[in-house]
Design brief:
Layout lengths: L1 E3 L7 H8 L3 E3 L4 E3 L3 H19 L7 H22 L6 H4 L3 H12 L11 H24 L8 H31 L4 H7 L1 E3 L8
Antiparallel strand pairs: 1-2, 3-4
Helix pairs in contact: 2-3, 3-6, 6-7
Bound molecules: protoporphyrin IX containing FE (2 copies).
One protoporphyrin IX containing FE (HEM) binds next to helix 2, helix 3, helix 6 and helix 7.
């Protein structure tokens, strides 16, 4: 294992991004990007959200327990966004809306840079998904409390959040497929192995 500081980045924004990061490369030239907890978090969140979705009319408490697992996963991820490995940190992938906007323009013009971590649009999507699942779980929990039990407003809030997340998914999965094709890198596999290929000239680490 060797530590590689990025020296080839020229513009100041890129340098700022590079200063926050180190690439940890292995013997095969891959970079460890997603730590094991991020990967376990992601696939457990997918499983718990999908299971909660498909058990939403269960007569026992299965739906509520599975939903609470999703809530616990989100709570962990919020903490990990501050103390986790470099690419897991919010500071690494939450970017100014102007940067996100320019990145989307770059995608439309087929000239977007490859990011080793989440790209600016992907980072926004990550935030939206975390917020959406958190809102779904919180409103679901509130529906079971004395204060909100049987209240239409909370039931509607719960449905709006749950359906909101489902509406985001084509954007999330479409973005993953688009970036995988454009940068010739299987991002789904990277979310399993944790590894991506090392930054080349023009990429942003
Ligand atoms: C309920 C469904 C899903 C939810 C709530 C969800 C949520 C998320 C979140 C929160 C992240 C950020 C990971 C992190 O930094 O901790 C993420 C990343 C990612 N997700 Fe999902 N996801 C879902 C479904 C999927 C599916 C079905 C796929 C596979 C096609 C997928 C592929 C990925 C990949 C590849 C990344 C990394 C993207 C990148 O390289 O920047 N996700 N997802
Ligand atoms: C985060 C994952 C969750 C998802 C995807 C989800 C999704 C849903 C959906 C789609 C419905 C049906 C809404 C409708 O009929 O329009 C529902 C109902 C409900 N959810 Fe959730 N939910 C989640 C978490 C929770 C949690 C954490 C709780 C409570 C601790 C909860 C409690 C309920 C209750 C009590 C109902 C009403 C069931 C009924 O009709 O009897 N949900 N949920």
């Amino acid at each position: 294992m060797q530590l590689t500081m990025l020296k080839h980045l020229k513009c100041s924004t890129m340098q700022k991004l590079a200063n926050n990061n180190i690439q940890i490369s292995d013997a095969h030239g891959g970079v460890r990007v997603w730590d094991p907890l991020v990967r376990i978090f992601h696939w457990s969140l997918v499983a718990s959200f999908a299971t909660a979705w498909f058990t939403s009319s269960s007569r026992d408490e299965t739906h509520q327990w599975i939903g609470l697992i999703a809530a616990a996963l989100i709570a962990f991820r919020l903490l990990w966004g501050f103390v986790g490995s470099p690419y897991a940190r919010f500071a690494q992938f939450i970017r100014n809306p102007r940067v996100v906007f320019n990145y989307i323009i770059d995608i439309l013009k087929s000239r977007e840079a490859r990011y080793v971590g989440h790209n600016p649009a992907g980072g926004m999507m990550v935030l939206a998904l975390l917020f959406g699942v958190a809102g779904t779980a919180l409103s679901g929990y509130l529906m079971t409390t004395d204060a909100w039990y049987g209240e239409d407003s909370m039931q509607i809030t719960h449905s709006v959040f749950a359906y909101g997340v489902v509406l985001l998914l084509p954007g999330h999965i479409g973005g993953v497929i688009l970036a995988s094709v454009r940068h010739k890198e299987n991002l789904v596999r990277a979310m399993v192995t944790g590894k991506k290929s090392q930054a080349q000239d023009g990429d942003i680490a």
